Amino acid sequence: MPYFDHSATTPIHPDVLKKMNEVSSTHYGNPSSTHSSGRKSKSIIEDARRQIASAIGANASEIIFTGSGTEGNNLVMWSLTQSDKKHVITSAVEHPAVLKVLQKLAPYGITYSVLPVNGHGRVNNENLQNAIQPNTGLISIMMVNNEVGSIQPIKTLLETAHSAGIPFHSDTVQALGKIPLSVKEIEADYLSFSAHKFYGPKGVGFLYKRKSAQLNSLIIGGGQESNLRAGTENVPGIAGLGEAVRLASKNLSKRMHHLEELEAVLLKNLKIVCPHVKINGCPKHHIPGVISVSFPGEKSDILLAKLDRKGIEVSSGSACGAGSVKPSEVLKAMGIPDNQNISTLRISLGRGNTEEEVLGLAQVLDSITHG
């Protein structure tokens, strides 16, 4: 079955699965135990931490293991409740794991400003400058949008944040393994990641926290993860995460080229078979392989059902909003009218997709939309 929903989740890489199975079957000790089995489990965790740090140019002590990108975002946001400065600046196209959290934090004195985006889904730096208040304690702007693939001008936004002495967080869940990423170049204070977005296991992720950045624990208990994330660690998951990060940083340019070629073939053929399609997002600043495409006169839920019956899997937007027929908030923020919004599919390509598959997708969409 052709799978074109890699932004929602990716299949586990065989090498990652092999690593996880090996750890699961052999190393069962509690990492907090001081005996041999415990020490071995602890060493597996620290090996993975070093793998991740090496891949993104960080220090191992700056990597905190979490259960997901969502948890990483929550950890940073909830930490503000113990800060003197409780105003946050974010954008209108953030994941609910940022926007909904900020809504929930209102009783704790957290206020926030939501920056608009342009028709390409990108934030304007001047708007950020104008939104800064004396009590702004955090700026949180995602690096890559999960629905349209637009890349934000992170370096420029970071310069504005740091010139004002404000910590900067970015939800980078959709970036790792798709574009080059180094904390030596992207000097953010916090970055959130999730393994299942780059061929790793579900239920495990990590938060990068710059050494000088402040952070308070969200999950209280034992002293795991430098007292920042209590609970016995998911050793096989962390081992798989480390291997997935290692693989994601290997031959990146080759994989990017593969996705760019597939994307070009798909777009060319879509425009031939469906001349009235509209492509959403930023043509210049976007990750390869993520295509948000609107089919005027169609409804995305009907298109999804028809494609599924043909054995083809795509999305109508963020998987976290699946099952809902209402217009996408991201596309709304970009100024896309509702009739176009509800006719939109997100097609996200991956390492296993072929040119034959994307040509087949274009042909099926042709038959569906002209049937």
Notes on the protein architecture:
There is one protein chain. This protein is α/β, with parallel strands linked by helices and 371 residues long. The chain has 2 domains: 14-248, Type I PLP-dependent aspartate aminotransferase-like (Major domain) (Aspartate Aminotransferase, domain 2, 3-Layer(aba) Sandwich); 252-369, Aspartate Aminotransferase, domain 1 (Alpha-Beta Complex), CATH 3.90.1150.10. Helices cover 39% and strands 12% of the residues. It contains 13 helices and 10 strands. Helix 1 runs antiparallel to helix 8. The longest helix is centred in the last third of the chain and has 22 residues, at 252-273. The chain is globular and about 65 Å long. 46% of the residues are buried.
Outline the secondary-structure elements.
Layout: H1 14-26, H2 36-56, E1 63-66, H3 69-79, E2 87-91, H4 96-104, E3 111-115, H5 125-131, E4 136-140, H6 154-163, E5 168-171, E6 190-194, E7 205-209, H7 224-227, H8 235-248, H9 252-273, E8 278-280, E9 290-294, H10 300-309, H11 329-333, H12 338-341, E10 344-348, H13 355-369
